Structures are given as structure tokens and as C-alpha cells.
UniProtKB/TrEMBL annotation:
It holds the Pfam family RIO1. This is non-specific serine/threonine protein kinase. Keywords: ATP-binding, Kinase, Nucleotide-binding, Serine/threonine-protein kinase, Transferase. GO terms for molecular function: ATP binding; protein serine/threonine kinase activity. Gene3D superfamilies: Transferase(Phosphotransferase) domain 1. It catalyses: L-threonyl-[protein] + ATP = O-phospho-L-threonyl-[protein] + ADP + H(+); L-seryl-[protein] + ATP = O-phospho-L-seryl-[protein] + ADP + H(+). Transmembrane segments: none annotated. InterPro entries: Kinase-like_dom_sf, Prot_kinase_dom, RIO_dom. The keyword ATP-binding applies.
């Protein structure tokens, strides 16, 4: 197991080895209550599988290759053996150069232009490949506004786009603050209201009640 669920809404994450084949990363909600699985977990797994396939075909950014949905509560994808989390480079004082973040910013801009928003974009969901290229992970809540996408996704797109842009500014401020543009500095000074609301709910409701009940 790579990571055990820390709350009732989290998946357990495993690494599965296949002899002579690609290592797999497996997300599973099978140990969560049925209500949680029915309410959102299964939707998140299906959404991530389809968004990974969309990005694979788009070819703009490296993402884990989707492999299968073995059952309603499990998702299997490629395990990225040639990449490390961006956050670990900061902790070891070996962060990527400015060119990496310029490329990451260009990727997010192009994804938005193509009608795609990550929605949970942050430094923990960015990987650095061994050759110094950006790689994105964790697309459970990603949305599209392209034809054929649900009206809910299309309605959420502008909000998630603003979330991505705010997160991009935070990442640059953390690693290379001298790179911040004027608009990015302004975004840091005025986070979207729904992000402020989300932080309040996580601190005062989720962590105080839901997470404690899961751990207890």
C-alpha cells in the first residue's frame, strides 16, 4: 500500500506489480461505506478514468495512462516510475528551474483554451519527470466544457478555471516568486470566494467532525 485513506472520503492507494509489464497505481474505495461510494466515489473514479483518456489523446501534457476500471470502486492506471512529486524537490532544495514553471503555466493555459480544467490543481498534483518535464496527476474532479460534456461540467468550468489560475500563482510564488506576473500577484491577493468557503468548511466541519469520526 502506498497510502491508506486518512478520511472517509479518501481512497486507499496501492502499487501493483505486473511481471514484464507496467507497474500499476490502484485507487480503491472498496473499504469505504456504501453511501460514500454511491454518493461520489464511483463518479470520481469514472471521471478520472475518462479524463485521463481524454488527456492522453490530447497529447498536451504527460499524465498516467488509464488502464481499467476493474469494478465500480476501483481504478487502475500507470504508476509513474520515472517521475517524482514536485513538493519533494522543494523540500530537498532541488527545485526545477524557471523554465519548468513557464512550461507548466503554458500547459494550464492551453488546457483551458481546449476547454479543460483540472479543478484540484496544486503542487502536490504536479510531478517532475527524470528529464525535467511537468506531469499532472489526480483528475477526479476535472471538468470539460466541450460538446458532449454534461451541463454540470460546463457550468463548473469557469469556477475550476479560476481555481487552476490561482493555484498556478501559488506554485510560482512558492518556488520562483520572481516569476510572478502582475495578474498572478493580483490573484494571490484575492482568492476566489468559493476557495475561502471550502477552507472554512474543511477546518470547521470536515476536520472537526467527519475526519475525527473516521479515525476514531
Amino acid at each position: 500500500m502506498i497510502k491508506a485513506a486518512r478520511s472517509i472520503g479518501d481512497a486507499d492507494v496501492y502499487r501493483a506489480e505486473q511481471p514484464g509489464a507496467t507497474s500499476l497505481l490502484v485507487k480503491s474505495y472498496r473499504q469505504r461505506p456504501l453511501f460514500i461510494r454511491w454518493l461520489f466515489a464511483r463518479r470520481c473514479l469514472r471521471n478520472e478514468y475518462h479524463k485521463l483518456a481524454f488527456l492522453r489523446d490530447l497529447g498536451i501534457v504527460r499524465v498516467p495512462q488509464p488502464v481499467a476500471l476493474p469494478d465500480k470502486d476501483t481504478l487502475a492506471m500507470e504508476f509513474l516510475t520515472d517521475a517524482v512529486p514536485l513538493n519533494t524537490t522543494w523540500r530537498t532544495d532541488r527545485q526545477p528551474p524557471q523554465e519548468f514553471f513557464s512550461k507548466l503555466n503554458d500547459i494550464i493555459t492551453e488546457l483551458h483554451r481546449r476547454g479543460f480544467a483540472h479543478g484540484d490543481f496544486r503542487s502536490t498534483n504536479v510531478m517532475v519527470t527524470h528529464d525535467g518535464e511537468p506531469c499532472l496527476i489526480d483528475f477526479a474532479t476535472a471538468v470539460c466544457r466541450n460538446p458532449g460534456c454534461s451541463c454540470v461540467e460546463q457550468a463548473l468550468f469557469p469556477f475550476f478555471r479560476r481555481t487552476d489560475l490561482f493555484a498556478m500563482a501559488k506554485i510560482i510564488a512558492k518556488f520562483h516568486p520572481e516569476m510572478l506576473s502582475g495578474p498572478q500577484t493580483q490573484r494571490l491577493g484575492s482568492p476566489p470566494w468559493y476557495l475561502r468557503l471550502g477552507r472554512f468548511l474543511r477546518k470547521n466541519v470536515y476536520r472537526r467532525y467527519l475526519k475525527q469520526s473516521f479515525e476514531g
